[in-house]
Design a protein that fits this description.
Largest sheet: 5 strands, parallel
Order of helices and strands: HEHEHEHEHE
Structural class: alpha/beta
Strand content: 15-25%
Number of strands: 5
Helix content: 25-40%
Shape: globular
Number of helices: 5
Strand order of the largest sheet: 3-2-1-4-5
Amino acid sequence: HPFAFAPEDPRLGMVPGGIDPERWDPARDPALASSFDGKDLSGRDACRDELIALAGWAEPPELIVGYAGPLLPERGLDQLADALAARTDRRIGVVIVGAGDADVAEAWRELAAQDDRVFFRHDGDETLHRQVLAGLDVYCLPGTEAAGELGFRAALRYGALLLCAPGVATD
C-alpha cells in the first residue's frame, strides 16, 4: 500500500495484545490461494481474485472493504451497513462474513439481496475468514467495543488497511 508513516507519527498507536504469528501467517497459510509476506505482497492479487470470485462479481471492484468475525451488535456493523447502503459508488465492493447475532445477520442478508456489490455469508468458518482477510483492501471495524477483536489484528497481518472507530486499535 502506498501509505507510509514515520515511527513517531502521533496517528500511530500500539495494538494491545496481538495474534499468534505462527498461526496467522499469510506466508504459510494453506487456506489462501497464494502465499505472501511483507517483503512480497504479489500473492495478495491471487487472494483478492479468489475473493472476487467467491463474491460472484463479474466486474472486479476497485476497492474491497469488509469484515470477517463475530456478528455482534457492539461491533457497529449496523453503522457500516447504513453507510454502505447510502453509497452510490459502484467501484466499491463489500464483503461481510461471520456468525452470531440473528438481527445483525438479517440486516446484512437484506442489504446483500438489494445490492449486488455486497456479499454476505453467515458463516463462522475460520478458513473462510482467512480467505476474506487476505483479499480485503480495507478491514472495517466501526464499533467502539472491539479493542480485543482478533479480526483487525489478523487483517493487518494479512495486508489490509484498517478503518475503525477512534480508540479501537490504539492503546
